[in-house]
Description:
Blueprint lengths: L1 H11 L13 H27 L1 H8 L6 H32 L1 H21 L3 H4 L1 H31 L6 H39 L1 H5 L1 H13 L5 H9 L8 H7 L1 H32 L4 H29 L1 H23 L4 H19 L2 H4 L9 H17 L1 H13 L4 H20 L12
Amino acid sequence: MADNKNEYSQKSKPKLKKEEITIVDTKSARKAVVATAVGNGMEWFDFGIYSYLAATIGQVFFPEVSGPMQLVFSFATFAVAFVARPLGGIFFGMLGDRLGRKKVLAITLIMMALATLSIGLIPSHASIGYTATVLLLIARLVQGFSSGGEYSGAMTFIAESTPDKKRGFMSSALEVGTLVGYIAGAGLVTLLTYILGEETMLDWGWRIPFFLSAPIGLIGFYLRNNLEETPAFEAMKEEKSEDEDVSVKDILLFHWRAILIGMFVVFFYIVVNYTVLSYMPSHLTAVLGYGETEGLLLIVIVMVIMIPIVLLMGYFSDRIGAKKIIQGGLIGLILLSIPAFNLIASDNTILVFLGLMILGIFSSSFQGTMPALLPSLFFTNVRNGALAITFNISASLFGGTTPLLISWLISKTMNEMIPAYYLIFASIVGIIVVTIFLKETSGKALRGS
Length: 449
């Protein structure tokens, strides 16, 4: 009787399908999360210090213009890096689908570190004239080329290295790395400005953060070089032959719908991210007249508070779904962007902080969900390449141009609410795309696993 009962209970249990299970070693997953997040933090330290030194760099390399237009020139150089991102994304993305995720991530990290170090070595415009500007542009192009493979590769690696049911939470650590990189960059610039003073920073102090990228890059390279390849890539490599490699043409031909949806998702994500993290320090300083130290300190505090919020967003995305969290963030920005920027323009430090915090919370809803969501749009054999194409084309069109476009529109209209209007526009586009076209993928196996 007992045997019959046991046999019945075994038969009554639903069988899991093979494609519903992704087996991941927990220890390897944690190691992958840490190493990928550290490397990503280093990348955004490099990008962040340029953003936080934009006003100073404008004076060093573009002394012939002044006021808001100097900031426009500085952010134009910032945007130049995004011209090279799609090329770097395609090159490293396709390489990652052929050779493996791990090798590409190590290469891009070293390239980024060397390019950032070189910016600190460039003589000023006063010393060598326009040659300084040309060298700055070249260094930024190399940064852009390497970052094209870095972030999409990092998202792919971390998504493929984590369990399905915890992918949202563990992948959100990638954006924690982004915030830590930004915080380190902003904190260092703030500290140096306080210790050295604005005059010394303009003279030579601005170079110090760029010099520090070399040792940080070596640490990140060591961590990544000692990682294991992702389980999904290893399984795919065992099953396919060498002549099954997919071309860029194949990706565009057979995966165009996922790419198009992904580009619209990246659009609102990148606009919000770059407005809050890259543009706002310069907005506080150049547009609203805050001291550089005070403005940077406010941003740093906001980003520190954002870290646990990003992790919470990732945690809840595993339980209620990333789509609902993203929709909530978009609706929040549509309703509260204008009130937030009114608070930021109030000239009251507490109210300014509150306005920045409102933007930071809604930005966190995307940062905590996107690293897991975007890789889930594509199959394993094309994931790195397709995600690199998707992310970098959209980031190039809308990310690097966000600070430039906002600062240019403010200089032309003298309207300090331009950033709020742009956030609302991006969020309206986002809510339409997410609601109609985006499927929920939280807790499910990655395609092709």
